[in-house]
Predict the 3D structure of the following.
Amino acid sequence: MTDIRWDILTIGHLSRNKFWGESDRQAYRAPRCTCTLIRTQGRNIIVDPSCPPEEMVTVLEQRTGLKPQQIDTVVLTHFHGDHRFGIEAFPEARWVMASREIEDCKLKVSEGSADRQILNKLQPAEEGISAGIELLATPGHCMGHHSLVFHSEGMKVVLAADAVMTKDFFFAKDYYFNTVDPAAAVKSIEAIAEIADLIIPGHDNYFYIKGRG
Ligand SMILES: [Zn+2]
Ligand SMILES: [Zn+2]
């Protein structure tokens, strides 16, 4: 089995968290997503670059000692701004996202805009990310949302991104206020619950699922 190492670069948080008694009607803080580095077979893959480019470079160095040129692939789980803040820190890397999300966003983003330039550079993740890393469709939060699934240290890891906002959202089988299709979002949480030993959520630290692993 392919040996895969993963490290959290930034632990995410939400702009509003109803499990903390906060209202969904206002932002209490700027959001930050959880950003992960996956290392396998000499490859360095960043998933959801969360900080502005300059800070992203600093965080990468602080957490791993790596330089931006050593990142060969950037994966976006979906196209929300907080999940791609730092993508420009990696101009030489291959940028990938699921084709459904690329196509859905191209319908909404106007030609010539900065976002459109990013979309045009993104390649379909279905063409392959790396051996041992599977793409899992987890629609609901947005319809093109995808998670990553891989084995590490004997556990099945689901990098769920916004299919699982935080640990509290997961165990309550709940979805975020901006969810496009709530029923699909709940199904995606259930699908993840069936296979995962460990979950890397979109806006929280990683957590284990009790009794597995
Ligand atoms: Zn999102
Ligand atoms: Zn998010």
The mean pLDDT is 96. The chain is about 25% helix and 25% strand. Residues 78, 80, 83, 141, 162 surround zinc ion (ligand 1) (CB under 6 Å).
